[in-house]
Amino acid sequence: MEYQPEIKLQEKLSELLMESDSSGAEVAREIGVSPASISQYRKGETQPSLDKLVVLHEHSM
């Protein structure tokens, strides 16, 4: 993946959910957060912890 610092987490997470067959609830379960947390990440209201970012990255591969 090419380094693109201007891309925001909420944009990447929305892309991940659109490109995969996973729902927000499924991704939440896989990374160990609530579906509400996924919604907050997508809206830019909160940021996931570093360990959750790593799991999200692994999920997107």
TrEMBL record:
What InterPro entries does the record point to? Answer: Cro/C1-type_HTH, Lambda_DNA-bd_dom_sf
Query: Which residue ranges does the record assign to the HTH cro/C1-type domain?
Result: 25-54
Organism lineage reads as: Archaea, Methanobacteriati, Methanobacteriota, Stenosarchaea group, Halobacteria
Q: Which organism is it from?
A: Halocatena marina
Q: Protein name, please? A: Helix-turn-helix domain-containing protein
